[in-house]
Specification:
Strands 1, 2, 3, 4, 7, 8, 9, 10 and 11 form a 9-stranded mixed sheet that branches. Strands 5-6 form a two-stranded antiparallel ribbon. The protein folds into 2 domains: about 10-70 and about 170-195, Pseudouridine synthase I, catalytic domain, N-terminal subdomain (Alpha-Beta Plaits); about 75-165, Alpha-L RNA-binding motif (Alpha-Beta Plaits, 2-Layer Sandwich). It contains 4 helices and 11 strands, in the order βββαβαββββαβββα. By secondary structure, the chain is an alpha+beta fold.
């Protein structure tokens, strides 16, 4: 049963793997409607079917625009499992920006994590190849090109196997389990607006 919308509503959802970031799908695939029973909220930005993690949904069009407009350069943080272990050259390429369809991406913050992060198992395990090691990166972007993280890591020879967004500006995924959501506080919404863009 849908909850009636009596006020502006903004929530943080941990979108599971294999769920479309919309509320309807003519092909009958899983959507946000399977997890969020609130009328009038829409995803502020993308998180593809095969990606997981933090997705903000809001009924406030101004806030949605602020979150998605690249001029605000709201940082978005991802944990990314890639094939093989990137060397310093590959990491520097990602940090400086790579050319995707003739356009160079903005500089990114990229770190090779020393240990695998503690994450819930994915509903569909990643493909495993005994002779191909994997590594985890933390990547912070300030733009949102289509499938950008996957295209960037592929461009430097390290295809993405698993992708989890863990922060959007000041909002973090925290302890939300896949499929769980929570309301954002008015303070958190103020923090989104006050996050200063990086020059």
């Amino acid at each position: 049963m849908k909850r009636s919308l009596s006020r502006v509503h903004t929530i943080a959802l941990n979108k599971p793997y294999g769920v479309l970031p919309c509320f309807t799908d003519p092909q009958g695939r899983p959507t946000l409607a399977d997890y969020v029973a609130i009328s009038g909220v829409y995803a502020a930005g993308r998180l593809d079917l095969d990606s997981e993690g933090l997705l903000l949904l809001t009924s406030d069009g101004t806030l949605a625009h602020h979150i998605t407009d690249p001029q605000h350069k709201l940082p978005k943080v991802y944990l990314v499992q890639v094939e093989r272990i990137p060397n310093n050259e590959a990491l520097e390429q990602l940090r400086r920006g790579v050319v995707l369809n003739g356009r160079k991406t903005r500089p990114a913050e990229v770190w090779l994590l020393p240990d695998d992060p503690q994450l819930p198992d994915r509903s569909v395990p990643i493909r495993f190849r005994k002779n191909v090691p994997t590594a985890w990166l933390e990547i912070t972007l300030r733009e949102g090109l289509n499938r950008q993280v996957r295209r960037m890591t592929a461009a430097v020879g390290h295809p993405t196997l698993r992708l989890i967004r863990v922060a959007i500006g000041p909002i973090v995924l925290g302890a939300l389990e896949p499929g769980q959501w929570r309301d954002l506080t008015s303070r958190e919404i103020e923090q989104i607006y006050s996050t200063a863009p990086r020059r």
